[in-house]
């Protein structure tokens, strides 16, 4: 039932005919680029009015964030968004709507595009290349030789030539306006929906080493996330710096993160390493059989390093066979789900019963609707069958492994995070890495088309009071990997192994 965490991390997509179109200022070296003026058209204010009205009545995170004391601050914020939209919503509609949704610090609730562009379809591709989305994307004249010469003499560590998996190459250069400090202009592209000279990304500094990343996807829709850029700059998110190469490579790396479903190896005579790339329901049977086969070896090894970096979650059923390895004492999982009861949400569940019948969920949905109708509008309810769950996975503390380390990063989300929390209830587990993704406090997403637009609103209808504290900010590790340190080496030190 929970909306699964997207492996693409914090991507927020928006419709390609209500894109953010950016004017920008002239670059510092006018011989590199010549600016053009983009334009756009969409009724952003109408979309914002619908979205804000729906969120205020039907979104679980709204009631948690906007308390009575916080309501005046929220109203001031909303008026500010409205003024921005009235001023230049045609060019920056997506950014303003994202800023509004980000106010609630609810990763699952977002606005995105209903677009399903298929670039392999000649007719769709032709239509896209003729669309306002493509034509109005900010475009500047580009000269690759001058671009390389410019960054060669730049003293700004962020500026440079960057590559994205061999598919795109951009010049990231200072270009400041109210919404950005840098932009990335395409020098080369293998995508049929992009051409050299178009602005592929923007960066705005939010703190000393934190930037808001505004990237544009295949259909030119918007992708936003907060990035930490370490010094010296060798990467910006998924972009790898090609030129100029830093004289001292950053050691703050996550080493090589295995991409296989699972990876098992002995790091030494006393330390086992197990990586798990996903807990997806698709692989439940495979994961269960793999863990069962590995259990004898894991029970012979004193130290165990479980690597769930980049694990986007899936189902808590996927890791149940690992829990006995972590067990040290009886504990209780006191988290539970609260359902927001509103007429709008009741209607959504009734539509699901009618239009998307699922025999496995029919009884649950009917019971939920019945309970919602029995309480006042806007009440959070807890299903009768939901009770605190005792940790019954095991009653025996295994001699080995004696110590378990769970290594995770910001791309650990959803059920990956519940696995981390399960480990934290054990006395033999140490968590190491950085804050997790923060996709754990809200769930049961309803998808609502925004009238007269291509926008689609995804809005949470449940909250977990015990886990809301980790939403958006993530679960902090017991031991944070220091800057310029190998993650694996640090993890082994924490385990007390060579």
What does this structure look like?
- It comes from Siphonobacter curvatus.
- Keywords: Signal.
- The chain contains twelve helices and 21 strands.
- By secondary structure, the chain is α+β, with helices and mostly antiparallel strands.
- It has three domains: 200 residues, no CATH class; 152 residues, 2-enoyl-CoA Hydratase, Chain A, domain 1 (Alpha-Beta Complex); 44 residues, no CATH class.
- A hairpin with a 2-residue loop joins strand 8 and strand 9.
- Helix 9 runs antiparallel to helix 10.
In short:
The protein has helices spanning 44-58, 60-65, 71-102, 122-129, 132-135, 144-152, 284-298, 323-326, 343-355, 359-373, 415-424, 487-495; strands at 110-113, 160-164, 168-177, 180-189, 199-205, 210-216, 222-228, 235-236, 239-243, 262-268, 271-276, 303-307, 332-333, 338-341, 379-381, 389-390, 403-408, 429-433, 442-449, 455-463, 479-480. 28% of the residues lie in helices and 23% in strands. It comes from Siphonobacter curvatus.
Question: What is the helical fraction, as a range of percent?
Answer: 25-40%
Individual helix count: 12
The N- and C-terminal alpha carbons lie at a distance of: 43 Å
Number of domains: 3
Structural class by helix and strand composition: alpha+beta
């Amino acid at each position: 039932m929970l909306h699964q965490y997207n492996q693409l991390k914090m991507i927020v997509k928006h419709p390609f005919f209500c894109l953010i179109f950016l004017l920008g200022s002239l670059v510092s070296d006018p011989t590199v680029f010549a600016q053009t003026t983009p334009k756009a058209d969409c009724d952003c204010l109408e979309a914002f009015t619908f979205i804000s009205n729906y969120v205020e009545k039907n979104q679980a995170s709204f009631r948690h964030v906007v308390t009575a004391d916080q309501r005046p601050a929220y109203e001031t914020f909303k008026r500010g968004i409205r003024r921005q939209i009235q001023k230049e919503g045609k060019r920056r509609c997506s950014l303003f709507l994202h800023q509004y949704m980000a106010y609630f610090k609810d990763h699952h609730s977002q606005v995105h595009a209903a677009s399903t562009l298929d670039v392999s379809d000649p007719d769709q591709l032709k239509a896209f290349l003729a669309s306002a989305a493509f034509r109005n994307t900010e475009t500047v004249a580009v000269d690759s030789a001058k671009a390389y010469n410019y960054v060669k003499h730049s003293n700004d560590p962020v500026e440079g030539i960057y590559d994205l998996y061999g598919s795109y190459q951009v010049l990231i250069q200072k270009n400041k306006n109210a919404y950005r400090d840098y932009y990335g202009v395409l020098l080369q592209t293998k995508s049929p929906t992009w051409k050299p000279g178009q602005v592929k990304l923007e960066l705005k500094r939010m703190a000393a080493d934190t930037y808001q990343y505004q990237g544009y996807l295949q259909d030119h829709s918007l992708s936003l996330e907060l990035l930490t850029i370490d010094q010296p700059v060798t990467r910006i998110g998924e972009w790898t710096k090609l030129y100029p190469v830093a004289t001292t490579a950053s050691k703050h790396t996550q080493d090589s993160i295995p991409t296989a479903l699972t990876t098992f190896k002995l790091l030494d005579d006393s330390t086992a390493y197990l990586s798990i790339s996903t807990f997806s329901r698709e692989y439940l049977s495979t994961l269960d059989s793999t863990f069962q086969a590995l259990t004898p070896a894991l029970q012979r090894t004193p130290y165990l390093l479980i690597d769930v970096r980049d694990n986007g979650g899936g189902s808590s059923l996927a890791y149940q066979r690992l829990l006995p390895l972590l067990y040290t004492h009886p504990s209780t999982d006191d988290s539970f789900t609260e359902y927001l009861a509103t007429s709008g949400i009741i209607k959504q569940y009734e539509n699901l019963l009618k239009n998307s019948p699922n025999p496995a969920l029919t009884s649950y949905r009917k019971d939920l609707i019945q309970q919602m109708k029995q309480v006042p509008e806007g009440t959070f309810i807890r299903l009768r069958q939901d009770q605190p769950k005792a940790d019954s996975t095991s009653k025996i503390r295994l001699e080995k492994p004696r110590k378990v380390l769970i290594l995770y990063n910001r791309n650990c989300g959803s059920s990956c995070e519940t696995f981390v929390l399960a480990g934290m209830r054990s006395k033999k587990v140490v968590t190491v890495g950085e804050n997790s993704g923060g996709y754990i406090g809200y769930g049961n997403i309803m998808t609502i088309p925004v009238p007269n637009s291509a926008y689609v609103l995804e809005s949470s209808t449940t909250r977990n009071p015990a886990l809301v504290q980790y939403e958006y900010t993530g679960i902090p590790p017991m031991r944070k990997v220091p800057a310029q340190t190998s993650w694996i080496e640090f993890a082994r030190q924490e385990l007390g192994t060579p």
